[in-house]
Amino acid sequence: MDMCSSSAKHPVLLEKTKTEDNEDKSQVKFQENEFIPKLQENTVHSQVIGECSDTRKDLSDAGSSSLPTLQKFLPTNYNSYTKEHYSYAGKNIIIQESIESYGAVVWPGAVALCQYLEQHSTELKLQGATVIEIGAGPGLVSIVASLLGAHVTATDLPDVLGNLQYNIFENTHNCTVHQPEVRELVWGEDLELNFPKSAYYYDFILATDVVYHHYFLDKLLTTMIHLCQPGTVLLWANKFRFSTDYEFLEKFKQIFNTTLLAEFPESTVKIFKATLKWD
Ligand SMILES: C[S@@+](CC[C@H](N)C(=O)[O-])C[C@H]1O[C@@H](n2cnc3c(N)ncnc32)[C@H](O)[C@@H]1O
Q: Region Disordered: what ranges (predicted)?
């Protein structure tokens, strides 16, 4: 089964939004169609709804003003690439992936959040919203947020920025109102220096599958906290695999007002909405 080849495969959304802290499982109802995101499968869509026709060209074709930024991140030296196809916001999106890096593959949480953003873009007021994605990987979520009208900054570790920039440019050039920006953001490092609170306000922080078996969970939490200001909404989608993932969630809920927006029982992906507790 591919990740999003059929519009019939909707995520399993909770019938009503619930506060995770007070979750009453008996009240949770699901739609019949279950959505099981999978990693590393070909995701060719049977029907291409739309495409930024003039974006399928080399970055070298970019306008001269964009070139310095683009060249900064090139090349990314993966030996094996594959192209995966998605369809969101009425556009065909092609993501260049490589199995050589966690950050060069689209993860299940990204697919889940893209569907959520697409289905709820109006109520979220994404049009014109300022959005930062942390751990953006190959960029699918940032691309979708941008196609839905948001002003997006996609961030990640230095070694994946080349591929991220490539995917973002190829999929948004000439078809978004605000051309997304790609920036280095290493969790917990130089946050106030590179993203001073006085200069940057984000309506949304997006994060997908940033919690897994790694040693930077505290720094990730510090980063989420730093990027939050009053009114900032954090949308975090994650596949829950390990006990450490649930331990992170417990810590997270102590710091953020946390609402479970959607969950996907088969794949154990959950989407949370959170705002920082300010007291
Ligand atoms: C599992 S991948 C998820 C990628 C993408 N968000 C998705 O869902 O498809 C985790 C991402 O977090 C990034 N990451 C891991 N550790 C990081 C750190 N210390 N600082 C910044 N980004 C980090 C990785 O480079 C990678 O892109």
A: 1-26
How far away, in angstroms, is 32 Cα from ligand 1 center? 32
Instruction: Give the residue extent of every domain in the chain.
Output: 13-276
Q: Which atom of ligand 1 is nearest to the CA of 103?
A: 27
pLDDT digits (tens, 9 = 90+) for 120-139: 999 999 999 999 999 999 99
Indicate the fold that domain 13-276 takes in CATH.
Answer: Rossmann fold (3.40.50)
pLDDT in tens, 5-38: 322 233 333 333 333 333 332 222 222 222 222 3
Give the mean pLDDT of 42-57: 39
Q: Are strands 13-19 and 233-239 parallel, antiparallel or unpaired?
A: unpaired
Cα–ligand 1 centroid distance for 210 (angstroms): 5
pLDDT tens digits, residue range 68-98?
454 455 556 677 888 999 999 999 999 998 8
Asked if residues 129 and 152 have their Cβ atoms less than 8 Å apart, the reply is no
Pocket test for ligand 1, best of 157, 161, 187, 248 (most atoms within 8 A of CB): 157
**160 in contact with ligand 1, CB cutoff 6 A:** yes
Distance 239 CA to ligand 1 centre (A): 13
Binding site membership of 245 for ligand 1 (Cβ less than 6 Å)? no
